[in-house]
Fold this protein.
Amino acid sequence: MALDDIYNNQKEHIQKSLEALKKDFMTLRSGKVSTAVVENVRIDYYGTPTPLTQVGSVLATDATTITISPWEKNLLQDIEKAIQEANIGVNPNNDGEVIKLFFPPMTVEQRKESAKGAKAMGEKAKIAVRNVRKDANNKIKALEKEKEITEDESKKAQDTVQKNTDEAIAQVDTLVKEKEAELLKV
């Protein structure tokens, strides 16, 4: 394994960690409601746990409302039950055609809680990035031990890995700051 492979592997895993962080952020409620709130809700569709998005259209119709229009009207009760069991903080309103979820505007306290959640998610992403650094450094040390690279090359490679890690941590901090600002903006 060449050093370039180690760097590319590190960058690829860092990218995956950043993508995971962005995906985690989608589950946080901000000022306007997002369909990501119901992303993990599954309904029993002919014996198979199925995401809501695969049994109907899920739309955020305004800042505080999500509308779910099932493709099969007989699923309305199942969807309603799944949403209640998912405990997402609102009760579904079933009008016989669609299910509407009305989210109350967020309080300052809820916004602060969401911002705290964003920070925690950022910390999780930083840990993932540091684990990627550890793996890369272990591979470099193994190459040095096998005498495939010199001690100087090993030191230089570890410095490069650290530089990549520092850049990634800075990206995580930026993403968290942006998300916090979005969450706290009224």
